[in-house]
Each structure stands twice: as C-alpha cells, then as structure tokens.
Amino acid sequence: MVTSRYDRQLKIEQIGSKGQANLEKSNVLVIGVGGLGSFVASELVKAGVGSITLVDFDQVELTNLHRQNLYTEDDVKNGLGKLEAMKQHLQAANSNVKINTIEQKYSSELITDQYQLVVDCTDNFPVKYQINRDCFQKDLPHIFATCAGNQGQAMFMNSTDDACLECLYPQQDIAKLGLSANIGTNPMIVAITGSLEASMAMKFLTRPEKVVPAKLMVVDNWNFDFRKIGVHVSSNCPLHGGNK
Ligand SMILES: [Zn+2]
User: Fold this and answer.
1) Of 2, 123, 141, 12, which is closest to residue 64 (Cα–Cα)?
2) Is the Cα torsion angle 73, 74, 76, 81 positive or negative in sign?
3) Domains in the chain, please, with CATH?
C-alpha cells in the first residue's frame, strides 16, 4: 500500500481530504523569499499547495544563512539568485508543486485575481503599504508580517471588511517601527513568524469558509510572550474611507 506523503496532515480533522484537495487547487503569490518568505514557501510547498509564485530580486548572501531557511553556503559560492536557489531546493522537496518565479522588485501589476492569496514576506514598510493598498483595491486576501529584534507580528486580512495594515499602523507612524537591518533579527523569530504566516495561509486555503476576523499575532521569543489582538477598522484609515 502506498501511503500519501500528506498522510499526517490528512489526519488533522480540520484539514482532511477536503482541505487537502482545496490546498492542491490553490494558487498563491509570495512576495519576497528572504527570512519570512523562505519559511512560507517551504512550508506551503511541502504541504502540497497547487501553485506558488515567488517574487524577489536579491542574491543569496552569507549574512542571510543564519535565518533564511533552505539556502546553503554553495548557493552563496555559486552566486545564485534567491529565486533560482529557492526553486531548486523547493522542487527537490516536492516535485508535484508548480513553482513560478518572477525576478523583479515589487510592483502593483503583480497583484491579480489569478491568486487566491497574497503573502507579504518583504522587509520594507513602503512596499508593505503598497501591497496592502493593492490587495485592498482588488479585494484579495492577504497576510502581513514583520520581524525585528526578538519580536514578530502577523495578521491575516480576508476582505475589505477586515481591518488593514493602515488601520493597524497609520503610515505617519512608520518611523517608530524598527527595521531588522538596524536592530538585528533573532533567527528563531523569523522561523516562528514565517510559520505563523504559513499557518494562516494553510487554514485559509484548506478551509476558506472558516475564516475569522483579522487578529494580529504578536510574538516575543525572548520573553516568550504570545498575544492575539483583535484589530478594528479605523475611522482614520484612508483605504477605509477616513481622512486622506
Ligand atoms: Zn484600513
């Protein structure tokens, strides 16, 4: 008897064969395959997502290896781009998944309704706000996440009825948010936060009818503090009809 490679996840009551079939029909856009994107892409490909499109433009560098899953010293020595290296590693893990790569910086034209879900794995807040705006305008589900220091955050937004990134963090407050290049990044918070994004994606793609209102997950992996925070639509959010 041949056992499915997905045997263990099929046994999860909330996934089951129906959820797995939904996952295998899914088409997901992952923007950025650095720290967060490495985990999101590898988790979803190993779990059997139908099709995944990866967007990035960087080379693999030695300073990436402590936190960016799957990349190797050989990738650095061979001067590989992240997309080429990631596609090789992912396809070796699961040849059933269709993996597309787009080598460019983020642009709004990437957001189309061929995808069921957009996963923001960038480390750049101006780009995050643009992804948020583009997904809002296309009413496309998307997942935001960021990590810096020992803290990670992730939030799933299903529709324009949900609070968005601008509801959560008004753009004028952006300067207060830490960026990983400045304050460093604990490698394990990247794994935890990337896995949270992948978990949100897994739940949505396997059982889209079970979506829940936007909740922000905030994790600190030094004080071991995990919080789930309800986020409401803000009357000041320009996307939700507030002051521009
Ligand atoms: Zn909003």
Assistant:
1) 123
2) negative
3) 7-230 (3.40.50.720)
Give 179 Cα–ligand 1 centroid separation in angstroms. Answer: 22
Task: Scan for tokens 């959820």, then name that residue.
Answer: 19
234 CA distance to ligand 1 middle (Å):
6
pLDDT above 70 coverage of the chain, percent: 95
Beta-ladder partners of 59: 81
Q: Output the CA angle 62-66-72, nearest 5 degrees.
A: 55
The DSSP element (H or E) to which 5 belongs, if any, is none
- Residue predicted with more confidence, 146 or 210: 146
Over residues 103-132, the pLDDT tens digits come to 999 999 999 999 999 999 999 899 999 999
The length of the chain is 244
Dist. CA 142 → ligand 1 center (Å): 13
Answer whether 122's CB lies under 8 Å from 131's CB.
yes
pTM tops 0.85 = yes
45 and 93 Cβ atoms separated by less than 8 Å: yes
